[in-house]
Request: fold
Amino acid sequence: MEIKPNGTTTTKPTTTTTMNPTPKNQTNNPKSHTYNPNRIPYRPNHRHKRHGRSCNCRRFFCRCCCWTILVIFIILVLVAIAGAIFYLLYRPQLPSFSISSLKISQFNLTTSPDDTTRLATKFNVTLSTKNKNKKLIYTYDPIALKAESTNQIELANGDFPRFTSAPNNVTIIHSTLSIVSQVLDVDYISSLKSDMKRNSGMPMRILLDTKVVVQMNKLKTNKVRIRVTCDGINGPIPKGKNPSLASITTAKCKADLRIKILRWTF
Reply:
């Protein structure tokens, strides 16, 4: 109530403000801290550290590969240089082979009552080998000799002892090849009989297999396999007890190194 100067009184309206009570269950923190058992716990991410380690491993691997390739390249270059120097100093050449004569003393095909065909042969072969090198010495292991037809049917076999071929030297190889009683396969009998009926003689070849060591002054190489193939031989079948002389006018011998790498032979 307010009293004015003129003696009147004025009454002010009374204003009542009502405050809503705060609920008991409501909290002032807007974030909820309710525990959830299915929630995945927070784990810090360390991908940037792993990425750094992988980069270092890759760099180390690349460096190792580069150094390995470089070392192999240097070794190959040194081997090539050494080979070139060796070739210029010694001028190495493979030994040459030639066939001098081939006599067929026996060549019999017999068929038993049980239809088994057996082969009995006897050859006398003479070959020569020449060492064309001026400073290299060849040392041969025992040589295995074999005569076979064009269809790779073994006709006779023999051997020759170990020997050494000096520079600019010729060595004569004489051996007797024979087969006492070899059972032939049915598929080979017809082809062998047709070869025996040829007027020019049965075509055949002589094979030599051995190992050789090359010596240069005090240096020696490891044993290397060598095969000699003599083609172009025609041998007539002997009649009676007189041996027949094979034709070797077109015979040529070729020597090949047989290098073995793991299970493969070249």
About this structure: Residues 261-266 have pLDDT under 50 and may be disordered. The chain is about 20% helix and 40% strand. Residues 194 and 243 are 21 Å apart (CA to CA). The first helix runs from residue 47 to 90.
